[in-house]
Write a structure and sequence with these properties.
binds calcium ion; eight-stranded parallel β-sheet; globular; binds alpha-D-glucopyranose; five-stranded antiparallel β-sheet; 14% strand; alpha/beta
């Protein structure tokens, strides 16, 4: 490989040199195909009334920040009144706002303000389960003959005998016995999150009505939570993999989704499905613009690679997997691009190198995933390269999943330090800490003790510092977003993997009408060299290194990332 010694841009480059205006460039595509999304975890974004919990008014106050990033839509994580068992994903009331987040009037103001700023809003909707304190479930418990009883999933049993071996995603049996019903109810997640019975048409009608109600309030779309969980194995028999097998009937889910389609369609709602475990043919069907149900699906193949293959990232497998998804949705359907959300640790910690190359690897990861074909999502704090939270005590953890895990491992005799080490790498709380705005106490998030400890970082990382630093992760992300939004090839160009056949590089090309861009990322801690492509006829547009313009650099440094524009061959 030979790098072109002509024009070289540092990461402080000026993109307008390329003559791409600020105007949107796609013609007849859907708006979300040229959009960049930003996920907000409301309890940790900004606290305006100093009770230690972020709120809707905090989002409204930071619309300028969203404008600075140039995002087109926000996805706001669950803010409904809830039992606070699963941070809002145990809904007690679907038509409302939890008091700690504000009021419906605050919500309406937020929608109006976002729309005035030309930013769309997507809200979260947990469809698979409610809180055990939801009036439907309370009615079901109070009277087993009530119509609400059949809103949930029951199996007859006696005390202490689970109807089968199904397990909750959070650990333990997925069944909880209820004496008056002489039956157990199913909960794929926590005990206090009983699963809704989607076989019951009344449940589907309720959900359609709820969607309509929010559409009437002006929301632009939904992130439908856990859709792959909706259909349960009908015979309730034991399964081979007790944590997953009982809810993976995607054909069955399709029947339910068909009932939601009219309300989604008639309101022109942008729909994002959280689809853990989905297979490719199903994803293709669900994303079919005519016969499908979703605009985007969030699938997790690429993040599970990390979980299964510590400590070294299996680049070859990752390359292969992401490429399969890129190709599967190349002509029909569209990819959602993400490396973080509220259920994952921080990307710089799980994929990057937060110790030796925090900034560099955070930027490399950004360039790597954001410029693939698809709609990128950025999760709050990712644009600052925030690493994992690093809590030293189980008492600092708030996430139920983490706390249950701690308890079950302790019961098995695993040492405290070992479990804390695991949680430090894997806990969902790693990415749920207060967003750091400035150098003030609690990062300017709140004057009150936050509901969860801020991330412990050696260097100071916050918006104020990062936005004044031309070499910051934040500045780099802004540039990536601008590129993505203004270069047609980076939006609709074909994706093509360049297989470097090594265990370090991820290289791909984006091509549109003879215009070619090349993305080269070293996703390892060692320098890399490759012969697999020729950089001679190319200009480097973006890099996360301060490259010497005259150098003839053939090595790609650890976590170095480069974007090249290939000149058209005469
Ligand atoms: C979704 C949410 C997650 C929650 C789960 C159960 O996966 O993203 O936070 O724990 O649903 O409600
Ligand atoms: Ca607050």
């Amino acid at each position: 490989m030979k790098a072109n010694a002509g024009l070289v841009f540092t990461n402080n480059n000026r993109l307008h040199k390329f003559g791409y205006g600020r105007k949107r460039v796609m013609g007849d595509a859907q708006w979300w195909q040229h959009a960049v999304g930003y996920q907000i975890y409301p309890q940790s974004f900004l606290d305006t009334n100093n009770d230690g919990i972020g709120d809707l008014a905090g989002i409204q106050q930071q619309i300028d920040y969203l404008k600075t990033l140039r995002v087109d839509f926000v996805w706001v994580s669950s803010f409904y009144p809830s039992g606070d068992v699963d941070n809002g994903y145990d809904v007690m009331k679907y038509r409302g706002v939890a008091p700690q987040f504000g009021t419906l009037a605050d919500f309406d103001r937020l929608v109006a303000a976002l729309h005035a700023a030309d930013i769309k809003i997507v809200i979260d909707l947990a469809l698979n389960h409610t809180s055990s304190d939801h009036p439907w479930f309370k009615a079901a418990l109070a009277d087993p003959t009530s119509t609400y009883h059949d809103y949930y999933i029951w199996q007859p049993t006696t005390l202490d005998v689970a109807p089968n071996n199904w397990e909750s995603v959070f650990g333990g049996s997925a069944w909880t016995y209820h004496a008056a019903s002489q039956a157990a109810y199913l909960h794929t997640f926590a005990r206090k999150q009983p699963d809704l019975n989607w076989e019951n048409p009344a449940v589907r009608r309720e959900m359609s009505d709820i969607i309509q109600w929010w559409a009437d309030r002006g929301v632009d779309g939904f992130r439908l939570d856990g859709v792959t969980h909706l259909k349960k194995q009908a015979d309730f028999a034991d399964v081979a993999a007790p944590r997953t097998d009982y809810y993976r009937d995607f054909t069955g889910v399709t029947t339910y989704l068909a009932d939601l389609k009219p309300v989604l369609q008639r309101n022109h709602l942008f729909t994002i499905g959280e689809a853990g475990g989905i297979d490719m043919p199903t994803a293709q069907r669900w994303l079919d613009p005519d016969t499908g149900f979703f605009d985007l699906l969030l699938e997790f193949d690429h993040v599970h690679y990390w979980e299964n293959a510590e400590p070294k990232l299996p680049i070859a497998a990752l390359r292969q997997n992401l490429t399969r998804w890129q190709l599967a949705l190349a002509d029909k359907g569209w990819n959602a691009l993400f490396i973080e959300n509220h259920d994952l640790p921080r990307a710089v910690s799980y994929y990057g190198n937060p110790v030796d190359y925090r900034r560099r690897s955070a930027k490399a990861l950004g360039l790597w995933y954001l410029l693939m074909k698809g709609t990128p999502f950025i999760y709050q704090g990712q644009e600052l390269g925030l690493p994992n939270a690093r809590f030293d005590s189980i008492d600092d953890y708030r996430d139920l999943d983490s706390r249950l895990y701690y308890r079950s491992q302790r019961a098995k005799g695993v040492s405290e330090s070992k479990i804390l080490e695991q949680l430090a790498a894997k806990s969902r709380d790693n990415a749920r800490t207060p967003f750091p705005w400035n150098d003030e106490p609690n990062g300017g998030f709140s004057e009150h003790q936050p509901w969860i400890q801020p991330t412990q970082v050696v260097e100071r990382i916050n918006v104020e510092r990062e936005s004044h630093d031309p070499y910051s992760v934040f500045t780099f992300y802004r540039q990536l977003i601008q590129l993505k939004k203004t270069v047609p090839t980076l939006q609709k160009g074909r994706y093509e993997l360049i297989d470097t056949k090594d265990d370090q590089l991820y290289v791909y090309r984006r091509t549109y009408n003879g215009d070619n861009w090349l993305i080269v990322v070293n996703m390892s801690n060692e320098a890399a060299t490759t012969q697999e492509f020729d950089l001679n006829p190319s200009e480097m547009i973006v890099t996360n290194m301060r490259v010497d313009a005259a150098s003839d650099e053939t090595q790609i440094q650890p976590w170095e990332a480069r974007l090249y524009h290939l000149r058209k061959l005469e």
